[in-house]
Design goal:
The structure is a homodimer.
Chain A (H helix, E strand, L loop, with lengths): L1 H18 L10 E6 L11 E16 L7 H12 L5 E10 L5 H19 L6 E8 L6 H13 L5 H10 L8 E9 L2 E10 L12 E6 L5 H13 L5 E2 L9 E6 L15 H21 L7 E9 L2 H12 L2 H8 L5 H10 L10 E6 L6 E5 L2 E2 L4 H9 L2 E7 L6 E8 L3 H8 L4
Parallel strand pairs in A: 3-4, 7-9, 8-15, 10-14
Antiparallel strand pairs in A: 1-2, 2-3, 2-9, 5-6, 6-7, 10-15, 11-12, 11-14, 12-13
Helix pairs in contact in A: 2-3, 3-4, 6-7, 8-10
Family (chains A, B): Belongs to the ArgJ family.
Keywords (chains A, B): Acyltransferase, Amino-acid biosynthesis, Arginine biosynthesis, Autocatalytic cleavage, Mitochondrion, Multifunctional enzyme, Transferase
Pathway (chains A, B): Amino-acid biosynthesis; L-arginine biosynthesis; L-ornithine and N-acetyl-L-glutamate from L-glutamate and N(2)-acetyl-L-ornithine (cyclic): step 1/1; Amino-acid biosynthesis; L-arginine biosynthesis; N(2)-acetyl-L-ornithine from L-glutamate: step 1/4
C-alpha cells in the first residue's frame, strides 16, 4: 500500500511535468481565477470563476444520467431560457457535487448564479453553474456565497490565472488539465482555451467529467451548439476510464467575439474550419483526462476502420475500450488479440468476420505488428509485441472489412491493481 | 503474489467443499464420463461425453458474438437440420476452443461429431459438439478422435461419473459445477441434471460459458426450445463476471423421456410447471458460475423492483452488475449508494428519480438497511453497513418507483485485486 502510494506520487510528478503547460496563448476578453472558500476540508482551491468581459454565446452538453445534479438542471434551464445568448460567466465549486440533494440543492445552485450575477452587475441568469465532488450532501452554501465576491475580485488573464482556474475544478485529478492554442481563419487570429477535470469516479469524491472551451471568435449560439455537440461526440464521448457516467458531467463552450471579425453562423464559410479546430482541441483535452485515469499506466488509442458507419465504428471501439479483460491484458502487457476480437464480436455493429484485421501500431513510429489478417491469426513475434507494449502509448487498429470505409477513434487506459486499490481500498 | 496464490488455493478448497455435491438424483437413460485424451498439456480431464440411451429432443442457445467458434456453427446446423429431434449425445473438449480456426476448424468439429456417431452406431448428425479453451489454435484432432471411443466405453450413470463429466469441461474453473434434482408432475417423478463451466475469460484459456441441462421428462423439441430460452434469459443471461461474451458460449438442453409419461408440448398443462422447475434449476447452476468468478470474494444478488417492464428491470440490474466502480466498492466493503444510483441513472430504462429506493438486504436474515428512500439519501449507520458487507452474500434491492411493478434478478461478484492479477499478470 505504501509502495503504491509512493508510485502514485511519483507518477503524479512525472505527469505534471509532461502534461501541464508552462505558458499558453489565451483568448481575449476573459478573466479567470480560483480561491479556497471552504468546500474542501483541506485548504486547496475549491471555487473557480470564469468571466467574459462582454456577454457571450454559450452552449453545453450535459450528462444523460437520469439523476441529474442540481447545477446541471439549473445551467440547462438558463441556457434554454436565454437561447444560448448573453452568458457572462461560469462558477464552479469542487469538493461537493450538489447531486441527489432535492429542492434545497436547486435553491443552492440558483443562489450561486444570483450571487455571481449581482456581484458583476450582470443581467439576471447570465451565469452557468457547475459542481463536482461528494454526492448526497448539501453544499456549504454560506462559504460559497461569501467566497464568490472574493474570487471575482481576484481574476486575471495570465497563464498563472488560467492554471489556477484549472486547479480550482480538480477533485481526485492528479494534475490540472489546461490547453490553449491560436489559429487563423481568413487572416484573423483567434484563440481557444480549454479546461477539464475527471479521473474516473471516486466516492465520496465522485469525480465528474467537466470540460470548458472558451474562444474569442465570434460564433452564434446555434453554430456554437452544433460545434460543441460534434466536437464532444468525437472527444469526450470517445474516452473511457471505467465506463461510468456521473450525475454531473458537463461540457460547455463560450464564444465572446473579443477578437473581432464577422460572426460565424452554421452557414458561414468559416464554420467547418472552426468546427475542426475545436474538435481537435477537444480531443487533446479529452486525452488528458484519459492520461489521468485512475491507476492508468497506459494510454491506448483505438482506431476502428472500414465500418459501415461512424456510429458502428464508434460502437466497436467503445466495446473494446470498455472491456475489463482487454484493459487488464494491456496492464499485463499481453498481446491478447483474442480479447480484442471478442469485444469486436459482441459489439452491435456490422463486421465482416472473414476480412477483419487487428494490428498494434507502435508509438515510436516503428512498423505495425499484425495480429489478425482477414480473420486468421498471425504467428505473433512475442518479443516484438513485448517491445511495443513496454511503451506508455499504444494504438490498436482494427479494420472491420465491411467496405463501408467509415472510421472512429477512441481513447482509453488500462485497468490496474491501483484502480482497484483506489476504488476499493480507499477506506483502509 | 505468493500470498495471492495461496489465498486462491484455500478459497478453492473451501468453495469445493461448499458447492460440489457428494451425491445426486440423476435423470434416467443417460450415461456420462470424461477422460484425458491430450488436448490439455497436464494430465487433467479434457474430453467429456454425454450419451442418451434413446434419441432425445434437444435445444440450444448460442453466443451472439459474431466470431462464432466452429463447434457453435456445427451444433447449430445439426439442431436446425434435425428440428431438435433425434439427438443422442454431446461431446465436449476442454483446453482448446476451436475458435477463429477457419475451414479446418469446421472440419475438425464435424469429425468429432462423425466419430461419436459411428462409434455409437447413431444415425448421422445425432451428436452436438462443444469446445472451450485457447482460441486461434487448431485442435489436436488426432488425440481427440482416438480418445472418443475410449471415453464412450468408459461412461456410467453414478454420481462419480456425473462429477467426472463436469470436471472434464473445466478450464480455469476452480471447482466443477454440477447440480441435480427430482420433482413430480402429476404424480410422476422426473429428474434433472445440470453441468456448467465458466469463470470469466482468461486468455490463452478463454473460459467460455457452457451449460447443459438433461432431463428424463418427455418434452417436445418445440417446448424444450421455448423453455430453454425462457430459463436462460432468467439465469445465464442474468449473470455477470466481467461483462464479456465469448466466441463459444453455449447452453443446451436434452429431454429423452426415459421416465415415461405423456409428452409435454407448449400447450400441455404441465408446460409451465416444468418451465418453472428448469428455470429455478438454471438459476442455481448460473449462480455457481458467479461464485467461481475470477477473484470473486462476494456473491451479490441485484433485485430490481417496480420497473415498467421485465426488460427495463433487467437493464438496470445489468447496468449495476457491470459497473466496475460498483464492483470495486463491494470488494472494498463500502456502502456506496452513489455508485449504485449512478449506474441506475445511465441504464436505458424508465426510472422515477423521486421515488427510487435502494436497500441492502443482509444475507443473515436481519433487517434491511435503507440507503436511499424516495430519491433522498438516508443517514447510513456505517457500523451496520460494515456488518452486512462482511458477509460473503449480499442482496441489493432497488425499486424504480415507476408503478409498473415488474421485477428482475441479476447475480454478480465483486472486482478484486486478484481479478487484475489473474487477467493481467498471468504471464509473470
Amino acid at each position: 500500500m505504501n509502495n503504491l502510494k509512493l508510485a502514485r506520487f511519483f507518477a503524479t510528478i512525472s505527469k505534471e511535468s509532461k502534461y501541464v503547460p508552462n505558458s499558453g496563448s489565451y483568448p481575449l476578453g476573459y478573466k479567470v481565477g480560483a480561491i479556497h472558500c471552504g468546500v474542501k476540508k483541506n485548504s486547496t482551491l475549491d471555487l473557480a470563476v470564469l468571466v467574459s468581459e462582454t456577454p457571450a454565446s454559450a452552449a453545453a452538453v450535459f450528462t444523460t444520467n437520469k439523476f441529474k445534479a442540481a447545477p446541471v438542471q439549473v445551467s440547462r434551464q438558463i441556457l434554454n431560457d436565454k437561447n444560448g445568448k448573453g452568458i457572462s460567466s461560469i462558477v464552479v465549486n469542487s469538493g461537493n457535487a450538489n447531486a441527489v440533494t432535492g429542492k434545497g440543492g436547486i435553491e443552492d445552485a440558483l443562489k450561486m448564479v444570483d450571487t455571481v450575477d449581482s456581484t458583476l452587475k450582470n443581467a439576471p441568469s447570465s451565469t452557468l453553474v457547475m459542481s463536482t465532488g461528494v454526492i448526497g450532501q448539501r453544499l456549504p452554501i454560506d462559504n460559497i456565497l461569501k467566497g464568490i465576491p472574493v474570487a471575482l475580485k481576484d481574476v486575471g488573464s495570465s497563464h498563472e490565472d488560467w492554471l489556477r482556474c484549472a486547479q480550482g475544478i480538480m477533485t481526485t485529478d492528479t494534475f490540472p488539465k489546461l490547453v490553449s492554442k491560436s489559429f487563423e481563419i481568413d487572416g484573423r487570429k483567434y484563440s481557444l482555451a480549454g479546461l477539464a477535470k475527471g479521473a474516473g469516479m471516486i466516492c465520496p469524491n465522485m469525480a465528474t467529467l467537466l470540460g470548458f472551451f472558451v474562444t474569442d471568435a465570434p460564433v452564434t449560439p446555434g453554430a456554437l451548439s452544433k460545434i460543441l455537440t460534434y466536437a464532444t461526440d468525437r472527444s469526450f464521448n470517445c474516452i473511457s476510464v471505467d465506463g461510468d457516467m456521473s450525475t454531473n458531467d458537463t461540457i460547455c463552450a463560450m464564444a465572446n467575439g473579443a477578437a473581432g471579425g464577422e460572426e460565424i453562423s452554421e452557414t458561414s464559410s468559416q464554420f467547418s474550419k472552426i468546427q475542426d479546430e475545436i474538435t481537435l482541441f477537444a480531443q487533446q483535452l479529452a486525452q488528458l483526462v484519459v492520461r489521468d485515469g485512475e491507476g492508468a499506466t497506459k494510454f491506448i488509442t483505438i482506431n476502428v476502420q472500414d465500418a459501415q458507419s461512424y456510429a458502428d465504428a464508434k460502437k466497436v471501439a467503445s466495446s473494446i475500450a470498455n472491456s475489463a479483460l482487454f484493459k487488464t491484458a494491456m496492464y499485463g502487457k499481453d498481446a491478447n488479440w483474442g480479447r480484442i476480437l471478442c469485444a469486436v464480436g459482441y459489439a452491435d455493429a456490422d463486421v465482416n468476420v472473414l476480412k477483419t484485421n487487428v494490428s498494434f501500431i507502435p508509438a515510436d513510429g516503428s512498423a505495425e505488428l499484425k495480429l489478425l489478417v482477414n480473420g486468421e491469426p498471425e504467428k505473433v513475434d512475442e518479443e516484438r509485441a513485448s517491445e511495443i507494449l513496454e511503451l506508455e502509448d499504444l494504438e490498436i487498429r482494427i479494420s472491420l472489412g465491411t467496405g463501408g470505409g467509415q472510421e472512429a477513434n477512441f481513447w482509453t487506459c488500462d485497468l490496474s491493481h491501483e484502480y482497484v486499490t483506489i476504488n476499493g481500498d480507499y477506506r483502509s
